[in-house]
Each structure stands twice: as C-alpha cells, then as structure tokens.
Amino acid sequence: MDWLDDIKWDPQGLVPVIAQEAGSKDVLMFAWMNREALHKTAELGRAVYFSRSRGRLWFKGEESGNVQTVHEIRMDCDSDVILLTVTQLGHDPSIACHTGRHSCFFSRLRNGTWEAIEPVLKDPASIYSQLQ
C-alpha cells in the first residue's frame, strides 16, 4: 500500500501543511501539498508545496533562497493535516514569510485590531529582486 493513500486529500487533491521550526518550535507557515509535492518532500528532504495561485509545485526558496530542510513529516490523528519539522535556511535569523519576517504568523489581535508583532528582517523587494 502506498503511504500517500493513507492521507485524506480534500476534493481538490490537497492537504494542509504546517511548517514548524525544529529548534525553536515556532510555527513558520501554512501551505498546501498535493500528492506529488508530498512525495517530492519526502524524497528530497526539502519542502515542496503546491501553490494554488500559481497552479504548480513550489519548491520553498526557489525564488527567495529561503529553503526548508525537512527533518520529520507527521500526519495528524484524522489523517488530514501534515506537520513538517524543518530548518529554515537562507538568512540568519531565518525568514519563512514572503513579507521578510521569521514567521507568517506575525499579526496578533489586540483590542479589536491586528498588529504586527514581529519585525521585517529583510525587505521583501530585495528578497525577490532576482525575479526582475
């Protein structure tokens, strides 16, 4: 039996994925994977996601250089969410978010408004300038 068959894929053939930093245990980001992305992640030991906006596989760091090395892949009790334990490479301190922050979860609700509580570590324009 193929281990990918154990996962409960949504109607679009996707599964939600959480990336957690191995050392700090910080939740870095949320993304999606299809079967091919999860298979490549397991095969390469590098995070490969499925970009819904691009409609294709997205090798984390392919544009920014902020690659995720995968140490462990876990599945939740309902078989419908994947957790990756990763080391975020490419910048010190690590940057996982396209906004240039360590984590995509940088906004906190306080007194009815969202506030950014993590600094921008690197200007996103400089991270993605190689695309120009």
**Arithmetic mean pLDDT:** 93
The share of residues in helices is 10-25%
The main sheet orders its strands as: 2-1-6-5
Q: What is the class of the domain at 9-92 in the CATH system?
A: Alpha Beta
CATH T-level fold name of the domain at 9-92? Ubiquitin-like (UB roll)
Number of discrete helical segments: 2
The CATH superfamily of the domain at 9-92 appears as Phosphoribosyl-AMP cyclohydrolase
Terminal CA distance reads: 45 Å
Which structural class is indicated by helix and strand composition? Answer: mainly beta
CATH hierarchy: architecture of the domain at 9-92: Roll
Major beta sheet summary? 4 strands, mixed
Q: Kindly state the number of beta strands.
A: 8
Content of β-strand: 25-35%
Radius of gyration: 15 Å
Order of H and E elements: EEHEEEEEEH
Ranges with pLDDT <50 over ≥5 residues?
none
**What general form does the structure show?**
globular
List keywords for this structure.
four-stranded mixed sheet; Ubiquitin-like (UB roll); two-stranded antiparallel ribbon; single chain; mainly beta; 2 helices; 132 residues; globular
Could you explain how this protein is built, in words?
The chain has 132 residues and is mainly beta. The chain has a domain at 9-92: Ubiquitin-like (UB roll) (Roll). The protein contains two helices and eight strands, in the order E-E-H-E-E-E-E-E-E-H. The chain has helices at 35-44, 124-127; strands at 15-21, 27-33, 48-51, 56-59, 68-75, 82-88, 107-110, 113-116. Strands 2-1-6-5 form a four-stranded mixed beta sheet, with helices on one face. It has a two-stranded antiparallel sheet with strand order 3-4. Strands 7-8 form a two-stranded antiparallel ribbon. A hairpin with a 2-residue loop joins strand 7 and strand 8. The longest helix is centred in the first third of the chain and has 10 residues, at 35-44. The chain is globular and about 45 Å long. The termini are far apart. The model has no long low-confidence stretch (mean pLDDT 93).
